[in-house]
Amino acid sequence: EKTVVLITGCSSGIGLGLAVRLASDSSQRFKVFATMRDLAKKERLLECVRGCHRDTLEILQLDVTNPASLASAIQRVPEQRVDVLVCNAGVGLMGPLETCSQEAIKAVFDVNLFGTINTIQAFLPGMKCRKAGKIIITSSVGALQGVPFNAVYCASKFAVEGLCESLAIVLQEFNIHITLIECGPVNTSFLSNMQSMDPEGHELQGLDPKTYALYRQYSQHCQSLFQDAAQDTDEVLQVFLDAICTPNPPLRCFTTQFFMPLTRLKLLSPDGSEYVQAMHKFVFSTSEPQGDQA
Ligand code: NAD
Q1: Containing H/E element for 255?
Q2: Which of 16, 36, 91, 239 to mutate to test the pocket of ligand 1 (most atoms within 8 A of CB)?
Q3: How far is CA 292 from the centre of its chain?
Q4: What span, in angstroms and rounded, lies between the C-alpha atoms of 2 and 84?
Q5: Atom 43 of ligand 1: nearest residue by CA position
Q6: Hey, whose CA ends up nearest to atom 41 of ligand 1?
Q7: 126 CB contacts (<8 Å, ≥6 apart)?
Q8: What is the CATH code for 3-196+231-256?
Q9: Predicted-assembly ipTM surpassing the 0.95 threshold
Q10: Ligand 1 in contact with 13 (CB < 6 A)?
């Protein structure tokens, strides 16, 4: 019998890649329900899976912020049985906090936090009833440590960490494994899809000059970090695959060791001061990135 996998946010990036990878598995081990908010965007996915077996992929509409859309997606799955739920849909927001609109902030929390909660809530009763299941979350280095000018994104992703770590404790009793895949920068359209303040744009007019200068510096750092350190989607997908295929995946899997020294500083120095210093140095000292040696 095939493992049924439902993935959110499959019109691009990691979600699309994972759907294609699983649907084209040579042993046809998976039945993939690739879901996306806007079915008009399904062409790319269809293009990528051309030639793969028809009975391994189905595309469904699912907007994680819309409970009615979630309810109708779940009805389309035979017996509502999902063995592996991949909560992948997510959006970014980058800019000085004081320039982020309430609307933009709410939109980030609606997708990243409430969307994830809604999706888990929809599938959890079935998994509990069957005493089996895996919930995989596309998480981020920005879910574990603060990143300058990403305060809202990090806040939403930190919240998801708290959600999942809390759930994991009880879900052990039901043979349900919850796993956060901690991604660093990945070469997807995430950066271009996200709402970010253009340093040259009008949103930043009226911002104090010091914040403005720091934000420009951060924008450059971010671009070069993506150029130098971003992982290819395939590399990241392997970590998802491992978590899906191993019987007892841990709560967190890291796709890269690059940020580990910074991540460890948080634990080594619980008062936070060392992390704050080190991250400041990493982003704002003009020399080469020091993530590896921090
Ligand atoms: P992406 O922008 O290509 O993919 C995000 C997907 O989520 C898109 O297909 C988008 O349409 C979908 N989405 C947005 N709102 C939705 C909604 N309401 N309902 C359903 N789908 C919705 O970028 P990606 O890099 O593939 O991002 C996937 C996940 O990876 C996100 O959760 C993101 O936070 C996380 N992540 C990405 C990076 C990176 O550098 N690319 C790093 C760490 C974590």
Answers
A1: none
A2: 91
A3: 23
A4: 11
A5: 140
A6: 186
A7: 80, 81, 82, 133
A8: 3.40.50.720
A9: yes
A10: yes
User: Could you give the residue ranges of the DSSP H alpha helices within the chain?
Assistant: 13-23, 43-48, 67-75, 102-109, 116-130, 151-171, 190-193, 209-229, 233-245, 260-268, 273-284
> Whole-angstrom Cα distance, residue 94 to residue 26?
40
Hey, what are 274's tokens?
């060392």
Between the CA of 89 and the centroid of ligand 1 the distance, in Å, is 5
Q: Which residues of the chain have pLDDT under 50?
A: 288-294
The dihedrals phi and psi of 253, each to the nearest 5 degrees, come to -125, 135
CB of 126 within 6 A of ligand 1: the answer is no
Q: Which of 61, 190, 196, 225 to probe ligand 1 with, by most ligand atoms within 8 A of CB?
A: 190
Tens of pLDDT, residues 32-60: 999 999 999 999 999 998 877 679 999 99
pTM of the model: 0.95
C-alpha gyration radius of the chain? 19
Q: In the numeric block, which tokens belong to residue 169? A: 């404790």
* Residue 215 backbone dihedrals phi, psi, to 5 degrees: -70, -40
How far apart are alpha carbons 237 and 160 in whole angstroms?
20
Point out the residues that are catalytic: 153
Instruction: Kindly state if the Cβ of 91 falls inside 6 Å of ligand 1.
Output: yes
What per-residue confidence (pLDDT) applies to 246?
A: 97
Neighbours of 238 (CB within 10 A): 12
Q: For the chain, which residues make up each domain, given as ranges? A: 3-196+231-256
**211-242, pLDDT tens digit by residue?**
999 999 999 999 999 999 899 999 999 999 99
- Helices (DSSP H) in 42-182: which residue ranges? 43-48, 67-75, 102-109, 116-130, 151-171
For residue 11 the two structure tokens come to 């019109």
